[in-house]
Design a protein that fits this description.
434 Repressor (Amino-terminal Domain), 50% helix, 278 residues, 6 strands
């Protein structure tokens, strides 16, 4: 075969995934065009997946399982995709994300960086690349993180999106991530977010001394009105489902909102920063 790229399946999880796609395809005598037609992707996308130039996605994995007859088996591509994805994520986080995608209300408080659900791809890539330089993750895992974040964000773009209430410490908007162009795009994204009918954005100024939280916190409300909170340490994430523990956190969040500047004042602060004014 002309221009056939040989893969080492042991070089990375993505390479193993791609090599398996190629092997199963060729066992059936299918060309890349044949498989592309069956999964409704382009042949270029299939080629990039097989050669590990594109990370696998949940959607493609499910369609590959249907095409190859591996759905709901221990060897399914969906299961392999989840193992690849979770390998670069903090322990406990995948469990949280499953609930996040079904929540009817999401309350976020963050310090230092913009929450993932509000990050632009450029902002997210700078953070992932920084982790690569520190040796915390591999370049492949960095790509997987950015891809996974995009999937989390798209999961919230549904006919009835959740109500999202976000409180940011001023450090989130003051800390420059990436070049000025990337940071301006990120700040513009915050302003756009604040203008949506199902959102609220507030920025806590540095000089507001009374703060109930000193670490990032998330509170989710499910469709049955059950509550859960999520917080992270350096090693793992913790999902709390006991209402006796979550209700005080929700109460403290409401107090933080009440004492923080309004959304209009917060957007004005962001726009002042975008103009280069302190």
């Amino acid at each position: 075969m002309v221009n056939r790229k040989e893969l080492n399946p042991e070089s990375s999880p993505r390479a193993a995934y791609g090599a398996r796609v190629r092997r199963l395809r060729e066992e059936r005598g299918w060309s890349q065009e044949d498989l592309a037609a069956r999964v409704e992707y382009s042949s270029q996308h299939i080629s990039a997946t097989e050669t590990a130039r594109k990370p696998p996605t949940l959607s493609l994995s499910r369609k590959l399982d249907l095409a190859f007859g591996t759905a709901d088996t221990v060897d399914s591509f969906e299961r392999e995709w989840r193992e690849i994805r979770n390998g670069s994520l903090l322990e406990g986080f995948p469990e949280y994300v499953a609930y996040e995608g079904r929540a009817v209300e999401i309350r976020l408080y963050n310090i230092g960086i913009i929450p993932g659900l509000l990050q632009t791809p450029e902002y997210a890539k700078v953070l992932a690349d920084s982790a690569v330089r520190r040796g915390a993750i591999t370049p492949e895992q960095a790509e997987e993180r950015v891809s996974f974040l995009a999937e989390r964000q798209s999961a919230l773009e549904r006919p009835r999106p959740p109500m999202m209430l976000v409180v940011l410490d001023e450090s989130c908007i003051r800390r420059s991530i990436g070049d000025p162009v990337a940071m301006e795009a990120q700040l513009a994204r915050l302003v756009e977010f604040a203008g949506q009918p199902n959102t609220m954005l507030q920025v806590v100024p540095f000089d507001m001394s009374h703060r109930p939280f000193h670490l990032p916190i998330t509170v989710l409300t499910q469709s049955d009105r059950s509550l859960m909170s999520y917080a992270e340490s350096a090693q793992r994430g913790h999902l709390e489902r006991e209402s006796t523990a979550v209700v005080p956190i929700l109460t403290a969040y409401h107090q933080l909102q009440a004492e923080s500047p309004s959304q209009a004042a917060s957007v004005a602060m962001i726009n002042q920063l975008r103009k280069g004014k302190p």
